[in-house]
Amino acid sequence: MSQISRRQAMAVLGALGFGATAAACAGPGGSTAPGGATGPAAPATGAITGRVSFAHWRGEDKAVFDELIKRFAAKNSGVEVVQDISTSNDYNAQGLQKVRGAAIGDSFATFRGAQFNNFSEAGIYTELKNSKAVGNYQKGLLAAGQSGDSQLGLPYQVVFPMPMANTDLFDKAGAELAPKDWDAFLAMCEKLASSGVVPISWPGGDVGNGGQLFNCMIANNAPADDMCAQIEQGKLKCTDDWFIKMLNQYKDLIPYLQPNATGTAVEPAQNLFSQGKAAMLATGSYHIAAVRNLGAAFPIELVFPNTSTDGNATFEGVYNATFILGVNSASKNQAAAAAWIDFLSEPENAGYYANQTAQHVSVKDVEYTNADLKRLSPWLDKKTALAARFQFQNLDVRNAVEASATAVISGSSPEQAAEAAQKIVDERL
Amino acid sequence: MSTHTGTAAKRKAPDSTTEAASKKRRSPTRVNPALYLFPLPAVAIIAFFLVMPTLQAFQYAVTDWNGFSAAFNYVGVDNFVRAFTKDSLFTNALTNNLKFVLLVVIAQTVFSLLLALLLVKNSRGNVVLRALFFFPTILSSVSVAFIWKFIYDPNFGLANSALGAIGLEGLQGSYLGNNSQALYWVAVTQVWFHAGQMMVVYIAGLQAIPRELYEAAEMDGANKWQQFKSITWPFVAPATSIVVAYTTVQSFKAFDLILGIAGNPPKGSLDILSTRIYSTFANSEFGYAAAQSIIFMGMIALVTWLQRRLLRLTPKGE
Questions:
Q1: Are the beta carbons of A33 and B60 separated by less than 8 Å?
Q2: Domain that holds residue B10
Q3: Strands A146-147 and A150-151
Q4: For residues B63 and B74, is the Cβ–Cβ distance under 8 A?
Q5: B47 to chain A: nearest residue by CA?
Q6: A5 DSSP 8-state letter
Q7: I need a surface site. Which of A316, B57, B263, B290 has the fewest CB within 10 A?
Q8: How confident is the model at residue B275 (pLDDT cuts 50, 70, 90)?
């Protein structure tokens, strides 16, 4: 073997350096979105075999999905489904980068709003309009997974981001569960406080969970149903009267929240509620299973903080259709991934998921046997607003707008808090 | 070169190949060129994982790329201008970060030096205490964040419970929920987390100081403070240099601690540069986040350089 000269060695190193520099200078982007001008295609068909990665953020549902995976594998020999689970915050922040390219996430879920739209824009979804699964869903709940004429995703869960109530404590205090307006809501809180409990446990130290109350507070205050989208576009402002009025109503809540509410994380807030020290937990029905696991044995209802001042509220509550299921357009195993989504969407399997996780689903003809779900099922037929905070496409804007409420509870004046929020919105217009 | 080989050429006049071969054999400093390939794997790894992403960051920083689209525009220095003039979230994170660095660098340096001075002797008790103070360092930052999150919880947390138990209810607070104090409480956590590690650096520095210097100083009548000022402090300057530089970088990058303790995204009062960059990436603004990353890199370099200059931790000629 001939010896390499110093010149040759330097040439190799130089070429390596040049290659690295050249590679670094390649423009971002790289590939066009699958689908391109023709729009998304339906998942490929073929044998239901091989390994399917199911990417999502519901770590608490892992065991339930494991059981469903077993059933799916029993029905389709040669198929294996593995769950790739991230925490909800990480999934929200990095889900697109993780799933893009389909190294994981042959099938996946997205949050409603900004994440669904980003996935959609990146061409990650396939078209499910003509899938077997889509017919199993309640038509009115499919909108969150639509983009133009396409049905890209199937919103699987229906959650009610409204305060959960310990009805035993309400009965004891003689408090009304369905206040007709804001004064009635405050009167209800007053009765609860007089009975010696904290009326509302609110995780103000947790941006994600603390922000759910915003959905309720804004629903009947805003002049339009797409108020958050309009704030982001600059058509409505945080300094508008209706928004300031909402912030003043947040201020009304201060005496009824646990002390130092803005420093409370979600787990301690859940503990206050499950231990019967607080009558309401201002997060949402998605926490039923968590508080049951913490030992809450009392009956749970939902309470809508009705902000209407004249008793003529447009909405009786709020809901969110989320956990939007999809099949990855870059997946090499689309047939099996689509079959998995079809399987989850069958009423029997959706029912199993719902009853085991204490969450309603948007699949039709599901029989709810879980006592909590049975009790809360009437909410599915009430006039509820789609949770507004997910209209925000820009997370900085969303956080800034919601932070105005936290600032008010911390002691800022509603006007100051609104101006601070609007400043950030304006910077991002 | 010709001078070096001239005599041999006159004497023997061998052909050039033989001469070159004999030169290779003769020269004691001559390195086999094949050895230049030995660092190749390391160079390749550095080029691929460090140089390339850094160069790419510079390129992305002048675009409005969203992280997934094929299309993007070159925007020149707009992203940099935006960061400093039109983005109060970024300037807030920058202010928080500088405040955090200042607090932690001062507190951690003083506290770790104090611990080191108290525990410098190798007695059995001191060894146990050193291990105890070093213990937090081996914990993962996420565990530390969760431990302190519950200590600071205003309802069930250890801090308020302890204050209540000794009758100091008036001092109970919201800790992380208080926007004007939150950063200070996280700084306390950061110091608790890393002071033990820095203490070890100082102990090594202190144990290298010759005992004779203290004995001579004592004979000259120098008191403890004078001994510290004239002997200990100058001799631990190299250790201080390491502690300050390491703490600075660590405090700039307290990403996992902040995210663990304050959630994702952290609220404005706890947002620092690294968490802001992460939020910007998560918000599908890759070009802008890359520009923020470059500013971040420059900021760390600048602060570290300034510290070394101002504290005169690098003696001339070193």
A1: no
A2: 1-30
A3: antiparallel
A4: yes
A5: A20
A6: P
A7: A316
A8: very high
B contact test, residue of A260, A270, A273, A394 with most B CBs within 10 A = A260
- B135 and B239 fall within a common domain: yes
pLDDT tops 60 at residue B247 = yes
- Please give, rounded to a whole number of angstroms, the shortest distance from the CA of B98 to a CA of chain A: 21
pLDDT of residue B213: 95
Q: Collapse the DSSP code of B273 into the 3-class scheme (helix H, G, I; strand E, B; otherwise coil) and give the result.
A: helix
Among A67-71, A232-236, A357-361, B249-253, name the one with the lowest average pLDDT: B249-253
Cα–Cα distance, A394 to B113 (Å, whole number): 46
Compute how many other C-beta atoms are within 10 angstroms of the C-beta atom of residue B196: 21
* Residue-level pLDDT at A25: 65
B14 vs A: CB within 8 A: no
Predicted local distance difference test score (pLDDT) of residue B6: 44
Domains of chain A by residue range: 46-158+320-381, 164-319+383-427
Look up the ipTM and state it: 0.83
β A50-56/A79-85 pair status: parallel
List the 72-91 stretch of A: residues with Cβ below 8 A of B.
89-90
Residues 6+ positions from A254 with CB-CB distance below 8 Å: A409
Average pLDDT value for residue range A24-46: 67
Q: Are residues B245 and B173 in the same domain?
A: yes
Residue among B282, B278, B290 nearest A96 (CA): B282
Q: B244: distance to nearest CA of chain A, Å?
A: 31
- Say whether pLDDT at A6 is over 80: no
| Separation in Å, CA B21 to CA A9, A56, A150, B1, B113 | 19, 66, 75, 16, 59
Q: Output the CA–CA distances (angstroms, integers) from residue B289 to A205, B148, B281, B293, in the order listed.
A: 26, 29, 6, 6
The 10s digit of each residue's pLDDT in B124-137 is 999 999 999 999 99
Q: Is A75 left (phi over 0), alpha (psi -120 to 50) or beta?
A: alpha
How many Å apart are CA A357 and CA A289, to the nearest integer? 6
Residue A9 CA to chain centroid, in angstroms?
A: 56
Residue B11 — pLDDT band, cuts 50, 70, 90? Answer: very low
A346: left (phi over 0), alpha (psi -120 to 50) or beta: beta
Please count the structural domains in chain B.
2
Q: Output the pTM of the full model.
A: 0.83
Segment A339-366 mean pLDDT: 96
Contact A96, A122 (CB under 8 A): yes
Domain A46-158+320-381 bears CATH identifier 3.40.190.10 = yes
**In chain A, what is the greatest distance between 2 CA atoms, to the nearest angstrom?**
95
Give burial (CB, 10 Å; 0-12/13-18/19+) of B205.
buried
Give A254-301 pLDDT, tens digit per residue.
Answer: 999 999 999 999 999 999 999 999 999 999 999 999 999 999 999 999
A416 touches chain B (CB under 8 A): no
Options 3.40.190.10, 3.90.180.10, 3.20.20.70, 3.30.420.40; which CATH number does A164-319+383-427 get? 3.40.190.10
Cβ contacts (< 8 Å) between B68 and chain A: which residues?
A: 33, 96-97, 100, 118, 121-122
CB under 8 Å to A17, separation ≥6 — which residues? Answer: B43, B47, B51
Show residues of chain A in contact with B17, CB under 8 Å.
Answer: none
Give yes or no for B155 touching A (CB within 8 A): yes
Tell me how far the alpha carbon of residue A135 is from its chain's centroid: 23
CB B145 within 8 A of CB B261: yes
Q: What is the pLDDT of residues B33-64, one digit of tens each?
A: 777 778 888 988 988 898 888 898 999 999 99
